[in-house]
User: Which sequence fits this backbone?
């Protein structure tokens, strides 16, 4: 493997550090889900209903305004999810194949490490209080701003510039930026040209992928790997962890030290499992074994379908827990 340039390493670690605001926000809302709802609701009530008496029309109007805040928050979340699904496949087409594995490993590892570091600060004695709960979301906004402010100066993907925009000069400059001035630009451009000659003008649809035996086998292989997070109880843990622990007697009041030991033990070994590739194997496989013209449809379908299953799994968990009890968690590893 050729020696990576300092600028390429810097670029990877900028994305690996400052792009983790999404993972931190997910962990924040999972750990502070109940108190944040209470804090936010209390703040809204104090703002709109702090007076003791209102007329009926005033109460109705203020109630509609308060309801609109919740509606805007929910709509923004679902709009962001749909937008992410729409652009994910196209983004996969623009990422080069040479350092995709390293980039994915650094970015995903950075995410789980940041979550591991931020988790203790979400406890009620630190930042999970009524006065300080907003610090973690504000920190995520700062990270997102820094990420955008720095990444905007990075050149576009050389592969995208050459294959899609036909900008050979821009491709050379991007290659020199990421790989150094001593990189073998001619050899890389020949590889891009060879791949460009194999590409069709239009990307394949899902039916086209399923008709071809090679594309079909890689598609189902990636799809099976994408179901690993769904059946690994990660989604159930993120929503029901507190209630599960309390339900089994692990309350903060009586077993606070035990909670800390159990949490540290679980976090460390859980993040080791993530870093070993169980939960990030799917994007690596998309970049390595799927043809370039199939990455869009494969990445989109293998993201949407597992998420639908995850939603159903989280929704049905209380009923399944009543039927199967703790034995439910023995079914998920078998499914994996």
Assistant:
């Amino acid at each position: 493997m050729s020696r990576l340039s300092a600028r390429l390493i810097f670029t990877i670690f900028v994305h690996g550090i400052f792009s983790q605001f999404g993972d931190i926000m997910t962990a924040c809302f999972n750990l502070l889900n109940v108190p944040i709802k209470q804090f936010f609701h209390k703040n809204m009530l104090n703002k709109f209903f702090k007076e003791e008496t209102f007329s009926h029309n005033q109460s109705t109007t203020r109630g509609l305004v308060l309801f609109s805040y919740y509606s805007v928050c929910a709509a923004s979340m679902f709009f962001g999810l749909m937008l992410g699904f729409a652009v994910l496949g196209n983004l996969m087409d623009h990422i080069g194949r040479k350092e995709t594995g390293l980039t994915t490993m650094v970015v995903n590892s950075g995410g789980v490490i940041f979550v591991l570091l931020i988790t203790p600060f979400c406890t009620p004695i630190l930042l999970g209080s009524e006065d300080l709960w907003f610090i973690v979301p504000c920190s995520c906004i700062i990270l997102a701003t820094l990420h955008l402010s720095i990444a905007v100066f990075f050149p576009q993907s050389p592969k995208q510039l050459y294959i899609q925009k036909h900008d050979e000069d821009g491709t050379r400059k991007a290659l020199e930026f990421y790989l150094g001035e001593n990189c073998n630009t001619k050899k890389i451009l020949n590889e891009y040209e060879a791949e460009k000659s194999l590409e069709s003008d239009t990307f394949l649809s899902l039916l086209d992928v399923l008709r071809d035996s090679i594309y079909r086998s890689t598609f189902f292989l990636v799809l099976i790997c994408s179901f690993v997070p769904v059946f690994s109880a990660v989604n159930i843990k993120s929503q029901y962890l507190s209630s599960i622990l309390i339900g089994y007697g692990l309350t903060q009041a009586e077993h606070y030290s035990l909670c800390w030991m159990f949490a540290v033990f679980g976090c460390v070994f859980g993040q080791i499992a993530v870093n070993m590739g169980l939960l990030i194997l799917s994007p690596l496989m998309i970049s390595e074994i799927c043809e370039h013209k199939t990455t869009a449809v494969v990445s989109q379908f293998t993201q949407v379908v597992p998420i639908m299953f995850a939603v159903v799994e989280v929704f049905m968990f209380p009923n399944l827990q009543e039927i199967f009890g703790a034995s439910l968690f023995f079914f998920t590893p078998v499914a994996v």
